[in-house]
Amino acid sequence: MYLSATFIRDSCVKRDPASAVRVNQSYAAWLAAQNLGTFEAQLGKKFGTDQVKALRQEISGQLAVLDTALQKLGPASQACPALATQFSSDTFDVRKKVPNLAALLTVGRGPSGTTAASGSGSSAGASVTVYSVAQLSSLMAQTVAPLRSAGTRAQEAAGLKKLQTLGKVIVVSGTTKRRRSITQADDRREVRYDVYCYDMHNDAADPPQGQVTVAGRIREFDASLGVVLEDCVVLSAGQSAQFKKSTLAVVDAAWQFKSQPYEKFLVPAGQGLKDSEILGAYMEQSSAVGVGGMTITTYPVSLFLKDGTVFNDPYWAPTSFNFKLSRQLEPQKWGKWTRQGNNFTIKWSDGRTDTFIVKGAPKALPAGTRLSGTFETISGGGTTSLGGDTIVVSSGTYTFRPDGTFTGGSFGGGGDSSVTVGSSRASGGTYSVSGYGITLRGSASQERRLFFARYNDDMLYIGSSTYTRDR
């Protein structure tokens, strides 16, 4: 906008000397009203004169198009006086379109790599506070906690208001996780709310990989994503080292626990849950992404225990599942249930409360039960359902025979002190069913003891997947 206005001024002065004084006066008044008198100098200080020159060259084609459009407006003696009045219109109202422009120009990189926060040197850095992603996540978690029943919009509005108390531009340190996402994590936990950077300035489209410190303007708080910034600038190590670190406390609510590898919770048969400790397996209706990206209806199973707890991701046969370690390392998968007629009310470890509407109760089978038939599971992803050209398909098949043999399946990596599990595709072997578990034995002592339940003759649960009979 600044370069376009300057281009219009220069063009009119050249093409219509008679209106040059009026055009120059209107342009000068616009610069003063928008606080742009030192704008170009500030750009040079923030990004370097070479970058400003490169920007001019980059938009030269757009200015050529603008010049053609100006000439179509009519004789310069008529068009230029009319254009002069446009400098005071909403079209060129920079302060309205970018209300925090001055703040954006105060934090960034100068041509020599020093900060321009409010000058240069350590005195400038002392006035800027760097927040960790965990600190911002903690601030948001505490802000929205009292508004859990008020709805998402109320939570997001409160979160944005709280963020704005930190300033229009904030500086955040963290680790890049995926496209434009900055996070913080350790072996067990990750922050509940990441920081997202949009409109990266003077940098690549996405933040560099690894530890970064960014400065950006607060755009919004999204309860499903996290803190969203725009006009982000990645700061150099020298710049960020000059800033003071925030002392904002990080509370437990700032974190969520990661899902751990299934193999971490495998123990020898008989060292996990006892059959007598299990109330039952129940399924509820949910949804997932299917082949091509289409949303499909699913019926995942949760394992309810008699001690009043529930686990929502059964994979191993319960008798081989280290449930005590799971409660410690992945508490997000555990909750406490109370019976509500045929359904359950579950309070999860993070404080959420859900109503579990029972859609069925897959059964455990007596030891020695034989199976018969071919059962298949299929999942996937992609974009074809939305008109894209990407399709992802993942499937698996088991064929069980009454003689106790099977074909299909796979053996993943992992194991424990008593069982060695390979990583090859299984061609088959023998199976045995007992309670909520199935033991699959392949060649070379390969063995898997997985969660198992039968809903009806056409639907089985094996591991964490639902298998249906192949007709």
Automatic annotation (TrEMBL):
Keywords: Plasmid. This is Uncharacterized protein. It comes from Deinococcus radiodurans (strain ATCC 13939 / DSM 20539 / JCM 16871 / CCUG 27074 / LMG 4051 / NBRC 15346 / NCIMB 9279 / VKM B-1422 / R1).
